[in-house]
TrEMBL record:
This is Glycerol-3-phosphate dehydrogenase. Residues 8-369 form the FAD dependent oxidoreductase domain. GO terms for cellular component: glycerol-3-phosphate dehydrogenase (FAD) complex. NCBIfam families: PRK12266.1, PRK13369.1. It holds the Pfam family DAO_C.
Amino acid sequence: MTGDPVHDIFVIGGGINGCGIARDAAGRGYSVALAEMNDLASGTSSGSTKLIHGGLRYLEHYEFRLVREALMEREVLWRNAPHIIWPMRFVLPHHKGLRPRWLLRLGLFLYDHIGGRKQLPATRTLDLRSDPAAKPLKPLFRTAFEYSDCWVNDARLVVLNAMDAAARGVELMVRSRVTSARREGELWIVTVQSVDHPEVTRSFRARMLINAAGPWVDQVLQGTLARNDVHNVRLVQGSHIVVRAKFNDPRAFFFQNSDGRIIFAIPYEDDFTLIGTTDQDFKGDPKDIRITEGEIDYLCAAASEYFAEPVRREDIVWTYSGVRPLYDDGASKAQEATRDYVLKVEHGPDAPGNGAPMLNVFGGKITTYRRLAEAALEKIEAELGARGPAWTATATLPGGDFPATGFEAELARLRAEYGFLDDGFGRRLVRLYGTRARMILGSARSKADLGRDFGADLTESEIRYLVTHEWARTADDVLWRRTKRGLHLSEDQRAAVDDFMHSLPVTGIAAAE
């Protein structure tokens, strides 16, 4: 071990915060290794409502700093990744007996003006007696407010950060569990075990440890570091249902509920509507997270308060749940717990200020991941010394090297280069991969050149790209995180993808660990 190189930083966790910190640190010149025990974005980071948003409802809890920071990030992230992030308009119907109209106007006025909005359009009032947004709603709603936020493909945001981190030198390992971490003087000694091949272990030395394990952050402290009585996070379950499309309008809906909570109904994957989220405390192991019967009933009932055609259990085609690792601030209700992030540095228990430092990451939301990473780098710099300057605000993510408003032009260029692409197939490829779609299409002159089509335009060429360049190892990695094609394929088609994945060797950067 004494001959092994010493990394500046070792990151535990391959969610949005771990990958974001690793990418930022590598771009400043730090040497970084990262281990994720499952697939990238396999936990909370792919279980979000898939919005880059300020968090309109957080204004009610006076979280003005968090809302302002999040609002400012919307256009920054849109410029960084215009293929997977784009503007979306939200329709908030006024519901008599709930929040009064003046309060909604005030909240949206603040929303428009405290976050440096430049390209996103401002709020406007809708007359639902004539606006097309009213078509799927019950006729009792007369007025609504329409405002701007952004949509994000959350799992792809994580993968793109990981790809950029690896391109900048991060040693990134998936399906690799950290089994122990101990201080040895001024260094951490970290042991990593392959999940697929438990007999394979590796040891790393690092000057600083980053615990970005999300819902498992306390488990890392208890198990890996042998701590007792650790309680830093409040685990809050958020679940979503996906139903066949309830409306054709490109706008999303923001629905208020009589219990003070809110849900969204969002156009999803062309043919569906995404409805969520719930907010309830979670006491189990995050790996066992599943939507509950009560949550299904709640989401169906809440959406049916607004839609003329009720949302029924039999309409549901898919569900997913995530566990938010919120910093435990003692809030009485799950929906009131802060969504802000908390970063804490600690040293050896017997040598305050000495010993190898560890940074624990608590809370956060996908919208502010980049700012969280910058704040983490301030802590890292204080411990290890400064290297390069902050840089991520103006750096595009892989495939996002075209103007924020240039998606249609990029699609047109791709279709001009590959004449066999229809609009739907080309649009999907640009939405997922941006300019890197050409790496999938290569020299193809017909769709047949892309190999077998498993259904819904998912081809051998695309799967091979995901295995070689994006750490995809299983059918779930491809179907439910990186492409969402699982929604569009039959059970037999999904099984065929699984068989094909098993036939492929692990190559490229995915084999680096």
